[in-house]
Amino acid sequence: MNVAPPDRYSRHRAIAGFSQERLQAMRVAVFGAGAIGNEVVKNLCLLGIGSIDLYDFDTVELHNLTRSILLRETDVGKPKAVAVAARAAEIDGNVTLRAVPGDLRDTLGPAAAAGYDVAIGALDNFEARQRVNRLCRLVGRPWVSAAIDSRHASVETFPFDRHAGVACYECGLPDSVYARLAERLSCGGLARAARAERIVPTTAITASLAAARAVQQALTLPQTSSRRWLIDSESGLASDALIPVRADCPGCGEPPVSVVERLARDGGITGALLAREARRLAGELADDVRVELAEPIARAAACTRCGPTAATRAIIGKPARRVDQTAVFCFGCGGETVRIELADVLGIDELERDLAEFAIPLAFARVGADLLDMTPALPGKEIHRD
């Protein structure tokens, strides 16, 4: 008598309409390895998802252990993405996990975003959500954003793969959010040297609610419009509402792209290399096409008294977020005399003239309807069960 080998997914297969094979073929990105991210990754592994890429910039601290099921005291000081992925690999060895530590603005490129079946955001700040929203919208991939406070859990779903005209994450943001974001920058657009962050308390209960709903929505994506689900963990009351398209939404200004190309390179990307590739894509329109950068960079820097110096040259090409207010001080004359010019849109001739020899460490640049991916081909590392 032949006995079938044990199947860990047998209960899944017994559910009518449930396709374990579909789950095992899926590639999912999870952004954030905190309270919600832990729960999301745990749920995905229990379901037997094929591949999970986990992005997070932070390191494990002792206080994280009160609301993160996949972390232990021995993980303190380790990158969260690595620690959580390593523990998650113990749940199901069939799931491929990749940990991607670092800032999303450096590690997430359009080619990677386009390769995911769905992205799940478990993020705690607006800038990171804006980044994921922008890339998923540009390449037409669906994403789900989960957020919590000490009492409420919310899950927003953006099916960009179904219809490019659905509301995006920024359609639902009040103007006060942009005012708060502006406060984090100096009047010249540089990062403030130091700032106090407002800490929002979270709990494991609301995180588990948000994660459960987020995973459910990510794997089914039944709707063709963007929606917001909100639950009060104390009263148990929940709502599910349409997110309307905002006519003046800053996030909907860029049309989706038709082509994503990885920028060929042997080493770092310079202005000359970016200009060459942009000129190739633009063809006969090269003289008129503007290159839209993923974020503002310092296109020029010099002291008004001393002129260009080694210190000011070191600023050129850097993303504005990496240049804080202290950069305006000149080491030569001691004054606040360094003038820094920022730009996020440049002509090809400007790249060739002003930035040819300077490294431009950005994730991507847009040339017309094409995106040039400037990130490493495989950021992070694959995590295996010991």
From TrEMBL:
InterPro entries: D-isomer_DH_CS1, ThiF/MoeB/HesA, ThiF_NAD_FAD-bd, Ubiquitin-activating_enz. Residues 10-235 form the THIF-type NAD/FAD binding fold domain. Keywords: Nucleotidyltransferase, Transferase. Transmembrane segments: none annotated. Signal peptide: none annotated. The keyword GTP-binding does not apply. This is ThiF family adenylyltransferase. The keyword Transferase applies. It comes from Candidatus Methylophosphatis roskildensis. It comes from the Bacteria. One of its GO terms (molecular function) is oxidoreductase activity, acting on the CH-OH group of donors, NAD or NADP as acceptor. Pfam families: ThiF. GO terms for cellular component: cytoplasm.
